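== Sequence, structure tokens ==
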Amino acid sequence: MSIPLSNLDSVLTSTDKAKGLPNEHYVSEAVFDEEKKAILFDNWSAIGTGSDIPNPGDIKPLNFVGMPLMLVRNSSGAINVFQNTCRHRGMILIDEPTNIKGVISCPYHSWCYSLDGDLFATPMVGGTDINTHESIKNEELSLFKIRSAVWQDVIFVNISNSAKEFTDYASKAIARWSEFEKPLYHGGESSSFKLNLDTNWKLAVENYCESYHLPWVHPELNVTSSIEDHYHIEEKGHFSGQGSHVYNQMKSSGGNVFPDFEDLSDEWDTKSEYIALYPNVLLGVHRDHFYSIIIEPISTNKTIEHVSLYYAKEPSEMPELKTLLNSNASFWKTVFSEDIGVVEGMQRGRSGLMFDGGKFSPVMDSATHCFHQWVAKLLKDFRAKQ
């Protein structure tokens, strides 16, 4: 059952007057299901990275809020996303990450599909020695293709097929970081990791948007890039986050640093930025590395963060920096892990019946309020159509 529309009106006002999203948005199964449709399926949600399927023929199955999908890199290197179900009897096609040189074969009745999703073999469909039937038209039975796009190696999907083109949807973020539109190279095995959180997915996004918590939750980081060095980033209806005027490159024991991305303007010598591109991907850019955190909603109070780090050169081109690659991954894992206690604490706090969404700091919480407003507006519009 949906909560009354009026409960969202207090979110859709100025930050100094607004309350946060009501408790139901963090604990209610009904609202979680509503958000799945209105927020996650109707927009461009992140589900994986190109580095998850680096080679032609690579396939990775996944479950996105109950939807069985598979990431597929075809023989020419292009990435497709399909619903992971056979068009015959709905059998799951791929259970584990794999590399397929030939065809995707259903384990049930061996209907076969190309890496581009085309059905081209239907064994015994017309009898024990007949592989065709006039009622089975292969061109009508390709795998269900999910609308997808790739930006900065992040794979986005629009499951409902109702969103505007991705380049329009993310145009403001693409424009803001246009200097980073260049090849990214995954840092290797240690540069991908995941964190399991006992919290609602939105709290992970909300926490990332603001630097207000920096002195208390990230005291070591606050020494090198203090809260006074930070500024807000707010593009209402698209993304929000924070930036810092101070970025100190990590150095090896011998004083080596990661190579910079080429042709950056001087402002990036000391600047870094961190945005939440709505609904569920957190991004960070620096002169010498980039990262993405894909927020995977599991249930009202379960979330997985999938972290990937990238650089301006392949790890094989900078073998002398292998230890530094590991150190950088360890650094960010420590920073992101420091947030777990607070997002889980906020989730537990949402069981308090008297909590009314909370009071935002007009100065320090405006970027978080941007996200709340975006969610509230989409839900209100969605409910009006029901």
About this structure: The chain has two domains: 5-44+170-385, 54-151.
